[in-house]
Design goal:
By secondary structure, the chain is α+β, with helices and mostly antiparallel strands. Helices cover 36% and strands 24% of the residues. The longest helix has 17 residues. It starts with a strand and ends in a 13-residue tail after the last helix.
Length: 360
């Protein structure tokens, strides 16, 4: 393993839009062969998954008033808040992709380093969360391209919980399934769990200490590394200007369809449907979620024009290859998400509770 130094002109980069674009450049363009690792800190921002609806997941009014950036990642996963108390890590592996989907494999260097610092019961929880003493301290996501993998997550070192809870719009169904009452009770800062002699470290100091433990060296200077060059930064700047820094990429377009429903599925993630109905036929359909599958459009294309009947909807999900996209989700549950919502809306004269346009 080697470290990919993403500092610029000898200074750390805190711009989350730039930092979030790095994995795409590293696995598609630079492609340093072997197992690389990047680690950085972002200024305040909200990061959303590639398939998420920003208008439903984030309190955009609070975000804008408090000058918090919205940034869309190229991989799946849910919405998370970053500030100067968070550390983002990502494994950049080129030339070997047999471990795609194995979150524990890519989390193990981090978990081993945390354990070496005196933290107890560091382990994976669920499919892609890292916990310490049953408190979530990291959620991971993963993306693959051209025989390469980018797999990483966020370490909650000294997060501002108050801002995180105000800017994010938690999925209450997800919290209910996980058996917890609030986001605050699910997570805890690493800083609060460290041995007393380490709790005075700021985020940058802890990041450097963690890296020395990951690479089993005495100082940061001893870590084998590749530092991004002026040529690298020229390409990265161009990608940010043309794509990753645009509102079109980060916010997306709110389709504003008539109905919106979301449901959390254990070990899969949240799945959400935004759709319209005309003459008992699905006229528009858009799928969202924090699932890791890169392209959800086969579901959308299959559902459009489908009659609102169990058999027709089931056939449409089959045509949309739902098994490959949603893994272990039962077909009946997907059909019921659409039909039960429609039944409830009919009974309550299009209840405001389930209309996405009324939530904005």
């Amino acid at each position: 393993m080697f470290f990919i130094d993403t500092s610029r002109d000898g200074k750390p980069v805190y711009n989350p839009i730039i930092n979030q674009s790095l994995d795409n450049y590293l696995i598609n363009d630079l492609r340093l062969k072997g197992h690389g690792l990047i680690m950085y800190i972002n200024s305040p921002c909200v990061i959303i998954g590639t398939n998420q609806n920003a208008y439903a997941e984030v309190n955009l009014d609070y975000l804008k008033k408090n000058h918090i950036r919205l940034v869309r990642r190229t991989s799946g996963g849910g919405a998370v808040y970053h500030d100067f108390g968070n550390i983002i890590f990502e494994n950049i592996v080129v030339g070997e992709n047999t471990k795609f989907g194995d979150f524990e494999y890519y989390a193990s260097p981090i978990m081993n380093a945390l354990t070496s610092l005196g933290l107890k019961k560091v382990e994976m929880k669920g499919k892609n969360d890292i916990s310490i003493n049953d408190h979530k301290i990291s959620g991971m996501s993963m993306v693959a391209a051209k025989g390469a993998i980018a797999a990483g997550g966020t370490l909650l070192y000294n997060l501002d919980y108050k801002k995180a809870s105000q800017v994010l719009t938690p999925n209450q169904d997800k919290l209910k399934v996980k058996g917890v009452k609030s986001v605050d009770k699910r997570i805890l800062n690493i800083k609060d769990l460290l041995p007393e002699n380490l709790q005075g470290l700021d985020t940058n100091q802890f990041k450097e200490l963690l890296l020395t433990r990951i690479f089993n060296v005495n100082s940061f200077s001893q870590i084998p590394k590749y530092t991004l060059t002026a040529k690298d930064w020229k390409i990265i700047d161009s990608r940010v200007s043309n794509k990753y820094g645009t509102d079109f990429w980060n916010y997306g377009k709110n389709p504003g369809f008539e109905f919106y429903v979301s449901k959390y599925f254990k070990d899969v993630g949240t799945i959400a449907f935004n759709f319209s109905v005309k003459d008992n036929v699905v006229s528009e359909f858009k799928t969202y979620g924090d699932v890791n599958y890169p392209d959800l459009t086969p579901i959308d294309n299959a559902l459009k024009g489908t009659e609102l009947k169990k058999e027709s909807l089931a056939d449409a999900f089959e045509r949309g290859n739902y098994r490959q996209i949603f893994n272990d989700v039962i077909l009946k549950d997907l059909v019921d998400m659409v039909l039960n919502l429609q039944d409830e809306v009919d009974m309550t004269s299009k209840s405001r509770k389930h209309r996405l346009t009324d939530r904005l």
